Amino acid sequence: MVYSKEEQRAWSRALRYLSTRPRSEAEMEKYLLANHSGEVVAKTIDLLKLEDLVNDVSFAELWVRSRMENRPRSAALIRKELAMKGIGSSISDEFTAELDDLENAYILVSEKLSKSTFASYGELYAKAKRYLLGKGFAYSVISSTTQRYWSEIRD
Asked: CA 21 → CA 25, 27, 62, 73, distances in Å?
């Protein structure tokens, strides 16, 4: 198959963009549209998908795994991040359905606050709330997690 100069440039740009981390189809499209026509971008993305270099399902799976291993957060926040990357809710729901916010929040609090001492439950709750809200956890999860942690450190 013969490719035009613009198609070759788009392909090269796409490969450079993928060299730092996997990308969603929407991220790639936005990136390429800044310098190439819609027709060239569509052809390039089709070729990337054919070569399995852009795959939203694989991207979502990798994103969730990476978040949970390196920068844990709530399932809702991960779904929001995936939506911002152009991943549809059906795909993001599939990969976040198994996440246990209660257990993940507890692990985060245990790791973060293990070396701290607290004079009261209120002091612990305030610190845990600030930390877990930043990770996207709901107030109900924060409350349950803090109560569980407080009872364990008091025993």
From this structure: 13, 11, 10, 20
pLDDT per residue as tens digits for the range 66-108 = 999 998 999 999 999 999 999 999 999 999 999 999 999 999 9
CATH 2.40.128 matches 56-96? no
Domain boundaries, the chain: 5-50, 56-96, 101-154
Q: Which amino acid is at 153?
A: I
Q: Distance between CA 151 and CA 155 in Å, rounded? A: 6
Helix (H) or strand (E) holding 37: none
Q: Which CATH number is 101-154's, of 1.10.3470, 3.30.70, 1.10.10, 3.90.1420?
A: 1.10.10
Biggest CA-to-CA distance, the chain: 72
